[in-house]
Every structure is written in C-alpha cells, then in structure tokens.
Amino acid sequence: MSTPLNERIAVVDVLRAFALLGIILTHAVGGYLAGPPPAPDYNVFSPIDRFVDSAADLLTFGKFFSIFALLFGLSFAIQMENADRKGKSFAWRFAWRLLLLFGIGFVHHMFYSGDILTIYALLGLLLIPWRRVKTSVLLVVAIILVLNLPGLALNLRQLSTPPSAEQQQAAAAGRAAFREQSRRQYEIKSAGTAAELIEMNVTQSFVNKLNFQLVSGRLWITFGLFLLGLCAGRMNIFRDTEEHRRFFRRLAWGAGGVAAATTAIAAVQPFTMAVRDMAAALGNFSFSVQQIALSAFYLCVVTLLFWRNPTRGVLPALAPMGKMGLTTYLTQSVFGLGLFYGIGLGMLGKIGVAWSAALGLAFFVLQVFLSQWWLRHFSMGPVEWLWRTLTYFKLQPLARPVASAA
Q1: Total domains present in the chain
Q2: Residue 401 lies in a domain
Q3: Inter-CA distances, 125 with 31, 96, 115, 406, Å
Q4: 288: which of 58, 360, 372, 396 is 20 to 30 A away, CA to CA?
Q5: pLDDT tens, position by position, 222-235
Q6: Is residue 4 part of a domain?
Q7: Per the domain annotation, does 170 fall within a domain?
C-alpha cells in the first residue's frame, strides 16, 4: 500500500545529507573563495593537490547542488500536498516562508558570498504559479532548463554575431575592471576585517553572484531542478517499491553511461565562462549534460544502496543531518570562514587543495555525530526552529519531551 506523501521519507533525508557532503567538499577545495582565484594554480602546491583539484572539477562541481535543488522542489511538492490535504491556503504561506529564507540567506551572504539560499528563495517564488501545471509539461520544461539549452542557444547566437570593435573594447575594459575587483575581494577575504567583508558582500559580490547565475546558466538550471523535484514529488518516486527500484536501476545505468562519456569530454574541453568558438560552446553544453547525468547517477546509487538496508550502515546514520539540512549548510560556512578567511585563521591560499578537502571531510564527519546528538535531545535543528517559529508567528516546541518512568 502506498504511503502518504506527507509522511517523512527517510531516503530524502539521506540524500540531502549526501548532497551536503559534496557541497562542503566543493567549497573546501576552493578555500570557500566563492569567486575568481588569484591565479590558475591557486591552492595547488603538489601533484596530489593538482589531482584532487581536477577530480573535484569533474566529480563534484555543480553535482551536489543539483541534488540539493531537486530536493528543494520535492519539499515544495510535499508542503503543497500537506496544505491541500488540510484544506489550508498554500501560496501565501509558502511565499512568506521564502521571504524568511531570503532573510536568513542574506545574513549568510553578508559573510559568505557563495550563499545559495537567496537564489533559492527568489526562484522558489516562481514555483507558485507553476504548481498547477501538468506533470508532462513540467518534465519537458525541466529537461530543457537542466540541460542548459537556453545557454547553448545564447552561446550559438553570440558566435553567429561577432561583436563590433567598440563592443570588444568595452568588454576588454569590463574584464580588466573585474580582475581588479576580484583582486581586491581576495585581499578582503584573506586579510580584511568583518566590516570590509560585509560591505563588499552586500554590494559588489551580490551583483557578481547574480551575473554568474545568468552567464553560467545556473539560474535556469536550478529552476529546472526545482521542477524536476516537483515532478518527483507528484510521482512519489522516492517510495521504496519494486517498480521504483527498477526505475532507479535503469536510470543509474543510463545516466552513468552518459556521465562517463561527457566526463571524458569535460577532461579535454573544460567549462569556460568565455565562449569564443564552437568547441567552447559545445564543451560547455557537454558539461551541462555531465552535471545532470552524474548528479542523477549519484542520486540513484545512494537511493538504491539505502533501500537495500535502511536501518544499518553509513547511509542511515546520515539521516539526522538531512533532517536539519539548513542548519548543517550554514554551519559549514562557519567552518569555512573560520578556517580560511582573515576574520578567522586566515588560511586562504596557504594550505593546498588536498588538505582543504580533508579538513572539509573531517568537519562533515563531526557534523554527522553532532546532528545525531542534537536530534536525540531536540525535535529539529536550531535554524529550522527559527524558520518555523517565524513562519507561524508562534514559538515552536524544540526540546523533545522526556519519557516518564514506567
């Protein structure tokens, strides 16, 4: 018998925690820089650093954020069904939750410009008018967006209409200004004060983040993943049934094959923000395909492994972290800023990629145990509690009730 969608799905918590593992590794490899590096070999001090850096570009960059975004869309589907089942208004409550999420994200962005919560909050508003669209239409639109077909079309159009001499001069001046701005931002992140960091992040860095989202196509890719998550929620595919197991096995083989081929292409033709020829345009498109294919492969493998034994092993131990994913995500930034930035230990650019990744992994393991301890005593993460309390304008219970003696 099918379980109601509103009941908590354990594998989703595990997937969210798994995505957070990839997110902290991706950020740690870059020293939580969240911007252009000062040099091509930034943080690369040894052959193992170079290997880890190259592997991270191919195997982690963008993949775990994709899973995180898909699960955001899935949460939207669950919240919508809960509201419909109870006969409550949904749209305004969800919009208010997103406004609060934007506020939490903006405070986060003040210190760390790589914040994604502000982007999720803004894009999440677009889910509201899409919530009644047919699933078949959502799937088509989602696939177009996650494959970054709009980005491919824009790149091909740009190549077909070469810029004028004046446009080339303006572009060169813009690139020079951006390099100087990036240099200054690196100085502030590595050795600046908290006041300098906040001032930079609420002005230049926020604009730069929006520009990156547009130029890279990450903006519509993320929304496409939201739509895929909405479809997954409607189809209830994260329920453990034999039919769904067959679906994930087939998807794993198909996505794995595509990921292997496109990863080989990405190793030869890496992603670039400056598309100047057809090879670069097609290479970027191949990388977009690689991101979604490898993300799907990871998701399928983790789901199938968890379903094989949902009560024992490493994966079930990750579920508490997934239940308090917002708190986990934010505390990872506390780790990154505390280790790398000038307002902390100031190790930005001073330790190699391999050590950075190892320290990120060690902190993740610590978070696994902390989240298990926390949820033995409390019903939700502290930031989740704050978010829920502000959503309903009422203090929510946090401490777990103490069981009375028999």
Answers
A1: 1
A2: no
A3: 31, 10, 18, 49
A4: 360
A5: 999 999 999 999 99
A6: no
A7: yes
